[in-house]
Amino acid sequence: MQLRLLIPLVLLAGLCCAAGCGDGGPAGSQTSVEYGGLDDFVPPPLGDLQQTVSVVLSDLGFPETVQRPVDVAVVESGRIRFRVTSNSRTPQVLSGLESLSFQDKDKRFEAFRAGLNLEHVYCGHRDVRNRFSPRKHTYLVSRERDGHSVFLVRPATQSPWSVEHATRLAVTPPDAVDIDFRCRFRDVSAFGARGYVTFFWANYMRELHDAAVHFRGVSEQGGSEGWIRAESMDGWTVGTYRAATASALEFDADHNMALNLRSFEWPRITRPVLYSRSADGMVLILMFDRLRTDVDEIRFSHFPPAVDFQYVIHGVKKGRRYGFRARLIWRPWTTQEDCLQAWHAWHRDPGSTDGP
User: Fold this and answer.
1) N or C: which end of the chain has fewer CB within 10 A?
2) Is the peptide bond before 174 cis (omega within 30 degrees of 0)?
3) ∠ CA(296), CA(300), CA(302), 5° rounding?
4) pTM for the complete prediction?
5) What class is the 9-347 domain?
6) Does residue 63 have a cis peptide bond before it, meaning omega lies within 30 degrees of 0?
7) Residue 352 CA from chain centroid, whole number
8) CB atoms near residue 197 (< 10 Å)
9) What is the residue-level pLDDT of the chain in tens, covering all 356 positions?
10) Is 79 left (phi over 0), alpha (psi -120 to 50) or beta?
11) Is 59 helix (H, G, I), strand (E, B) or coil?
12) What is the DSSP letter of 32?
């Protein structure tokens, strides 16, 4: 039976923090400090925007030359067309993929109400910056001058966490968008004794065929790997799945983003690939170049109709470059085996950053 989940865009700003954000988590010894309101952070004005973007990209090891920043950039190749938007209209229109569509003859199938929206950056103790800070302040969109890629760029001066980051989005015909995310912190003092930072991306799906997400994993300790159908619909007190070898994140008892820090004990992920079945016979497949290392990890979060993911950096160090590569596929559904084969084909050589 087809499940149609439609949520007005005006509700998206609170969806992934609708429950549990003020709840306590596992008790910790670190004393929590909540900073003043986000309005206390006033970023300095930027000068030449094209030069600003170029400097950030160079700092993060991107060799591409870009055009002057724009509010919206559209790229079309193969059967995929996507539209990338800056923070200029937030929160009415969220940054990231404002649109992602697949062309089939005379029809277009739209994936998102908002996609790849960097929604939160948060640490292990209570801090007002844990909630929705990436949706504020300057987040620039620039097209590659002689190519088909688009960059989302935030200078460190525009981030209350003092982090510069850039995301390169490029079409790989006929149905994929390749993602390259890199970041570097200019100051890490805000992360305290816990020492980790988490980036959280939201994908608000337009219509779902099935409320669950599916990933390769194990349902219990010592279990055999297989496809897991994961559906976190029970009160939204938790909605995150972690790697089979990863530990639960520790956080302070009065944390204001506990919802996104809690994770299920089981099932757990064994391969960094998931899919979500959408209406009209479409499927969204997300795959990553890593699941867990000594430095960082990918986690899947699921708050229907949002198909989300997290990037966690452990022991974050000032000035070190971090990042990951991913591929997003939007195409007609075929089989689970085809989803796994798509990951195998890409995983042989997905590339890597110069970070961990």
Assistant:
1) N
2) yes
3) 150
4) 0.90
5) mainly beta
6) no
7) 17
8) 24
9) 444 444 444 444 444 444 334 333 333 333 334 444 445 899 999 999 999 999 999 999 999 999 999 999 999 999 999 999 999 999 999 999 999 999 998 899 999 999 999 999 999 999 999 999 999 999 999 999 988 899 999 999 999 999 999 999 999 999 999 999 999 999 999 999 999 999 999 999 999 999 999 999 999 999 999 999 998 766 668 899 999 999 999 999 999 999 999 999 999 999 999 999 999 999 999 999 999 999 999 999 999 899 999 999 999 999 999 999 999 999 999 999 999 999 999 987 775 444 44
10) alpha
11) helix
12) P
* Cα angle value 300/189/137 (rounded, 5°): 65
Angle at 150 (CA atoms; ends 145, 151), nearest 5 degrees: 105
Supply the DSSP string of 112-170, one letter for each residue: EEEEEEEEEEE-SS--GGGTTGGGSS--EEEEBTTSSEEEEEE-GGG-TT-EEEEEEEE
Burial class (CB in 10 A: 0-12, 13-18, 19+), 43: middle
Q: Write down the residue that tokens 């979500």 correspond to.
A: 276
Q: Residue 15: count other Cβ atoms within 10 Å of its Cβ.
A: 18
Q: CA nearest 192: which of 260, 251, 268, 232? A: 251
Give the whole-angstrom CA distance, residue 118 versus residue 306: 13
Question: Tokens at residue 123, please?
Answer: 């640490």
Specify the amino acid at residue 39. D
Q: In whole angstroms, what is the distance from residue 235 CA to residue 178 CA?
A: 34
Backbone angles phi, psi at 47, to 5 degrees: -85, -120
Q: 334-338 long-range contacts, Cβ below 8 Å, gap at least 24?
A: 334/283, 336/214, 336/227, 336/275
Domain residues of the chain, as ranges? 9-347
Distance separating alpha carbons of residues 170 and 289, to the nearest angstrom: 16
